[in-house]
Protein 1
Amino acid sequence: MSQTIDCGKCGMLLYFGEEISRRLYMRAIPDEAAVLAAYDNTCPRCGAPLSTDSVKITFKRRAEHVA
Amino acid sequence: MATWNKHVAIGPPAGVGKGIGKAMKAAFQKDPKALAILEDMQFPEIEWFVDNMFDRMIECGIAEQNAACVAAALASEGFTPVINNFLFAGMGRAYNQIRQSILVDRFNVKFIAREGVWGEVGVSHATVEGWGSLRVLPNLMMINPADAVEAEKAATAMMQYIGPAVIKQEMSPDPLTIFTADYPFDLGKAYSLRDGKDATIIATGYMVTEAVKAVDLLEEDGLDVGVLNVSTLKPIDEEAIVAAAKRTGAIVTAENSSEINGLGDAVACVLCENLPTPLVKVGVEDEFGQSGLITEEKDELMEHFALSAKDVADAVKKCILKREALR
């Protein structure tokens, strides 16, 4: 299962990888806000401000699991 | 002659390495935290880097596992290390270190990895199985550009992206120029060069060039065949693949690497789960790479591994027959 985060304005892929909340312990990335903070909350391609409300978050999973 | 979609203009060959080198120069000028991690291999545009970025190059020698750990440590402190090497060495020898120290924590390390059938460098260096071995690793973005234009744009996007990623610099003849300068490259998105009605060739890297040549061969037989360029193998653009299968009902994949766990298998998985469609793979079957004679008159490796435009065209005809047999 994986997760992607795209800029809500230009569609740039900002995150691809494991579903962030699936790691039970020693989570390297605590939440989506931390991903956006690494970009200084600004899309590097279009300059749009990034927030968890403005980006498109997609999960790819076959079954529902306990997060 | 075939017609092409917007942003496609077939032109003379140009080296993918030049595109990656241009992008690296620009990225290093823009990001003071970008660092070149060397493993006794030349970095793209090495002369410029020696003249301008000498203090941002770290030579780790032929010690790839150590270099991967050095890169992980630097990334944990906010740097953007870039490792350039043959795939079998930079990533193959350091597979475990990359998994444990870079990918599990999703550190922002970039790889430029050379692999492919061509190169006259023998069975040790002309590996074809490394690309597929990476696809199973979570958190790793995988990019394989079709030409020099896309290589520059893809490497630029890779450096803007925060997270582990690899761009493949294929060992192949220089690909044709496929894209115009204003081509809008997007990480994770496939691009349709032409739509076609009778079949779709889904190609990646150098094999986009052979797919483009195959379109002309097939047109002589009255077949209207599309070409979909899948430059990001992971995450793969499922939507574009399913749309192509819906449109033509016959899919041929083409890649300059092992067809096991590469593009062909990835496309097959997408189609089996979403829209079962007849498929024929063109790539290296279950065997190792090797040296071969390459002259202006003859490309022994292209013949040996059956990767020419004619092989792609034959695969398309075979796939159309498979589709018709099912109707």
Protein 2
Amino acid sequence: MLAKRIIPCLDIKDGRTVKGVNFVGLRDAGDPVELGKLYSQQGADELVFLDITATVDKRKTLSDLVKKIAKNINIPFTVGGGIRSVEDANVLLQSGADKISVNSAAVRDPQLINGLAENFGSQFVVVAIDAKLFEGEWKVHLNGGRIPTELNLLDWAKECESRGAGEILFTSMNNDGTKKGFENEMLAKLSNQLSIPIIASGGAGSMEHFYDVFTEGKADAGLAASIFHFKEIEILDLKRYLNKKGIPVRV
Amino acid sequence: MKVAIIDYNAGNVQSVKFALERLGLNGILTNNSEEILSADKVIFPGVGEANSTMKHLRKLGLEKVIPNLKQPVLGVCLGMQLMCSHSEENDTDCLNIIPQKVIRFRPNSQEIKVPHVGWNKILVKNDSWISENISEEYVYFVHSYFVEVGDFTIATTDYVQPFSAALQKDNFYATQFHPEKSGSVGEQILKNFLNIKQIKTT
């Protein structure tokens, strides 16, 4: 049976992990490669590296980092942040990325999804969508949630699928940072209406939340950042817990 | 040991090279037939779409080279599918090394997603090339098409229906999953391939 995936997400700035990371025993907790390696040893199924660098040198720094990650880590990883063209993506592919994720750039230029899928295959293309429930409707937001659009989440997700996205990474802005659980209702809707895998993000605070997102939310994967970084939940414990509750996971 | 990794515009070949480096081997990325012919082992990776990838192979003249290789050859993912006779993906005639067909997953329920992405279990035939220190393990898959279970299947996985997770015919070995991305289990499987003794063919 296909296992449900647990995916830690690492924010990267200028080649370093940002947002507090609280790890004892790591020589350098700011080194994304070391942290990624540790997570993979603890049983993470995939890793997501999100580059939030805003400087001009960004691309070179990122491709160097991707190369280092690919050399050292033996599980799949996705790289996102500022990919605007097929050429941007190609550099990352050549550096060893397994998947890339696009977000705002895909909304601004939906044809980008087609271009990426045609050039590299759908398996390479994750479309990340940040959305917020406002007055009864889920609206897609851009630039890390700062800019609202009129785009409806479900419509946009379906369009991404038809343009060749291989997976959807949905972050509920209403849940993000609350630690009150994932947005299971919307996730289940996405999962039922799309035929590609859905990665759930935003709201993880306990092990039970992961159980809920895989049952009620019908997600294929659960992504979280701070609860792993601050060791509130250890990946191995989480997987043992899910396994005991009958959720297929790789342990 | 000289390991050639066939580089033919088919996705993430770097990660195969890096995986070999982690095992202490320096693989050579190449589409040069002499280089491929002189290698002790050949890895034929690939992700992407079957039809355009076959076209790339033909353009490079590799469609004649690969089926005639005598050393152990490992096809990975699309590489494995292209070793078969025919793929349903855009009605593509493949290399016809292993007489099996590649077809698309057709789930009978909305709950089951295509592509098949993530970690799934393989059931390995005893005494096959893959089975040293490997029995029932999770490995990483990402694909929408699969090879049916047949005479050359040496490991199966269940998704929608049982399918071939690994194959072998003579000196041609193949995995549908990505050993280079399957953690320590994947490393063991790569080692098992690299440890295969040269097969004498007449």
